[in-house]
Specification:
- The chain has strands spanning 10-13, 19-21, 28-33, 38-43, 47-48, 51-52, 56-62, 67-72, 77-82, 87-93, 105-112, 117-123, 127-132, 138-143, 148-153, 159-164, 169-174, 179-185.
- With 193 residues, the chain is an all-beta fold.
């Protein structure tokens, strides 16, 4: 019933035994067992820094690390959920860090096992934010010239491919240096990399 009355934006999972997703308007995390269709609801903080959590854009289940990364809009926060213990591990508030502002939205939060970094894509300030996988603290910021919506990683983890959903481009970024090495034109509204 909870899923049937919810609008789910985007979610990804690297394993097929559990899915995690969040409703667009709300501060909940749904844990879904695809085999049984059982749904467990977990509450997330409703407010961070006095502002609501109300537009969750993206959830990624990182099965290898036992984490789900939950990216919010308008209040730039990433929740990190411990999928093994079933509890909130950390809330990463990016507002005021590296030029990120309250009102900026997060399009994705995707880990790169090769670099032990988590990459957070913003629209509003157009930043790619790199977090240390262990501390979850920002390590670097890369300002690009369009809204960031999705990211793919090369099989060896050496390159990040970041899309701009309305502007019709994809950047190829060196994961080691966080420098743009190429920019490709793609059709506008290309959301997935």
């Amino acid at each position: 019933e909870a899923l049937s009355t919810s609008v789910i934006r985007r979610f990804q999972s690297g394993c097929d035994d559990r899915l995690f997703m969040s409703p667009w308007h709300g501060s909940r995390l749904f844990e879904v067992d695809p085999a049984t269709r059982a749904v467990t609801q977990h509450l997330l903080p409703a407010r961070v820094n006095g502002f609501p959590i109300e537009e969750i854009n993206f959830v990624l289940n990182d099965c290898a690390r036992g984490r789900a990364y939950i990216a919010n809009s308008r209040n730039p926060v990433v929740f990190v959920w411990d999928t093994r213990r079933g509890r909130l591990e950390r809330e990463v508030n990016l507002s005021g860090k590296g030029g990120v502002r309250l009102g900026d939205s997060i399009g994705f939060a995707i880990p790169n096992p090769a670099t032990k970094r988590v990459y957070v894509g913003m629209f509003g300030t157009w930043h790619l934010v790199e977090l240390d996988e262990e501390t979850l603290e920002p390590t670097r910021f890369l300002r690009l010239d369009a809204d960031l919506w999705d990211m793919g990683i090369s099989p060896d983890g050496a390159f990040l491919y970041v899309s701009a959903w309305f502007q019709g481009c994809v950047w190829k970024i060196d994961a080691r240096t966080l420098e743009v090495v190429a920019r490709f034109d793609v059709p506008p509204h290309s959301r997935r990399v």
